[in-house]
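Supplementary Methods. Inverse-folding protocol.

Structures were first reduced to a discrete structure-token string of length 489. This string, shown here, constituted the complete conditioning input.
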């Protein structure tokens, strides 16, 4: 044995370097173990996938505002330069409000999922415990990751890393984080702005738009207030009989959309969809998938038969084909309405008629009414359509869903820190003028190449933030609850 060499440990510097590389490497590049059995998907896993794809579309939307001119936001065939990205359904990839609306419905559904299930099963104590836990943890869940990421942005702003000229003629010129003379003043300004954003009892729901360290977080106050409204509504209607509870949910949803409270309409609609889901499941039995799928038809329509699918005149095989056709048609219809343009809908082919039906309470913001309805239609359809759900339960959509909140938190700063430099580089490579121009082929090539390099880096950073900020925030809120909750019954 004397001639056999002894294995040596890696040098300390190399071990730390390997560890650092592992930390920085996004999880989609980590080698997968064949010994690990994949966890079965949760019945509501499609929610995560839909949320993830919506988050990616939000990134594409804000990126498109940098590399494309303002006419991109118009409806298709409403000017002399129609664009492929303006087409219905295609435009969803670069339409932010549509994705945000879907976000809000998903939040209402996801936050209501467990309480709605327990309410349908009349598990009183478990229901109250679930709602109380959600209320307690929601604030930390939303704002602690923002505190971490915006603090880093404030530090980077102090060192003037955001001081880069925007792309000429871009659709929207985003404001940059402020730069103050001293680091103390920078931190003071950040603390003041973050305190305003994270004020849990502020009545100023538009305060998120004034958070200059990350203005795309205008949605967060809506998210927090909408969450609290969902929890309050669940508690208020919990003791009502199931059919009356559903009726009251529908009434408050109709009131919200008619009165112009589109954001609350979205959250409450998510609650309503979850309530209907478990109501049908309890009434008809979870072992009957047809009771939870489209089409929602029956011999006699009642709240008890809502969600059942019964037609004695259709053969089983033809019935299955018919059901799938209805599910796909409903899905495409929801996507078409979700593509309602931000402007020029009054003259856009396919949307001119419904434009005239917009309630007067929405004024010039007619798109908020129709896109909100479309977002609810979409989530309701996917919930009832097994043939559609695989689009959102595949591993790519699930991965995006896992890092969706982190994507939302990091992508704006990445546009300034990285994206504009990339598009400038490719403009030089292609010989294009550095100006957003929908009529320039060379600029289009530059934008496509820049996107190919921008998105993976942004997703990699979001992956890192998800593992070391977002997950830690969730675990901290759970830990904090266990330390302060009363154990007495």
């Amino acid at each position: 044995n004397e001639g056999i060499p002894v294995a040596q440990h890696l040098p300390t510097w190399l071990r730390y370097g390997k560890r650092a590389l592992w930390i920085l490497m996004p999880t989609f590049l980590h080698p997968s173990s064949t010994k690990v059995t994949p966890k079965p998907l949760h019945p509501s896993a499609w929610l995560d996938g839909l949320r993830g794809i919506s988050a990616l579309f939000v990134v594409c939307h804000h990126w498109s505002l940098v590399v494309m001119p303002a006419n991109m936001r118009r409806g298709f065939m409403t000017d002399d330069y129609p664009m492929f990205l303006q087409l219905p359904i295609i435009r969803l990839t670069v339409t932010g409000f549509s994705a945000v609306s879907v976000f809000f419905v998903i939040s209402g559904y996801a936050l209501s999922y467990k309480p709605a299930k327990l309410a349908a099963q009349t598990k009183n104590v478990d229901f109250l415990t679930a709602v109380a836990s959600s209320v307690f943890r929601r604030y930390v869940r939303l704002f602690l990751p923002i505190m971490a990421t915006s603090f880093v942005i404030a530090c980077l702003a102090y060192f003037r890393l955001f001081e880069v000229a925007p792309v000429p003629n871009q659709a929207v010129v985003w404001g940059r984080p402020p730069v103050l003379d001293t680091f103390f003043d920078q931190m003071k300004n950040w603390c003041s702005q973050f305190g305003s954003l994270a004020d849990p009892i502020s009545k100023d729901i538009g305060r998120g738009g004034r958070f200059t360290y990350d203005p795309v977080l205008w949605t967060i106050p809506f998210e927090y207030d909408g969450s609290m409204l969902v929890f309050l509504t669940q508690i208020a209607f919990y003791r009502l009989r199931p059919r009356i509870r559903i009726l009251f949910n529908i009434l408050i949803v109709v009131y919200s959309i008619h009165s112009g409270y589109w954001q609350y309409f979205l959250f409450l609609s998510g609650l309503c969809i979850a309530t209907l889901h478990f109501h049908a499941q309890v009434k008809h039995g979870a072992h009957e998938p047809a009771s939870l799928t489209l089409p929602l038809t029956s011999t006699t329509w009642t709240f008890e038969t809502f969600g059942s699918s019964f037609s004695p005149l259709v053969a089983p095989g033809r019935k299955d084909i018919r059901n799938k056709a209805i599910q796909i048609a409903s899905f495409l219809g929801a996507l078409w309405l979700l593509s309602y343009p931000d402007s020029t809908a009054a003259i856009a082919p396919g949307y001119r008629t419904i434009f005239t039906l917009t309630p007067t309470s929405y004024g010039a913001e007619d798109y908020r009414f129709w896109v909100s309805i479309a977002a609810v239609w979409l989530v309701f359809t996917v919930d009832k359509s097994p043939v559609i759900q695989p689009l959102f339960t595949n591993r790519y959509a699930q991965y995006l869903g896992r890092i969706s909140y982190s994507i939302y938190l990091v992508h704006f700063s990445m546009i300034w820190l990285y994206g504009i430099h990339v598009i400038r580089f490719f403009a030089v490579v292609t010989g294009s003028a550095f100006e957003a121009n929908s009529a320039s082929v060379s600029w289009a090539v530059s934008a496509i190449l820049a996107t190919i390099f921008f998105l993976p880096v942004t997703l990699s950073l979001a992956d890192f933030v998800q593992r070391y900020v977002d997950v830690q925030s969730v675990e901290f809120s759970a830990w904090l609850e266990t330390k302060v909750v009363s154990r007495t019954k």
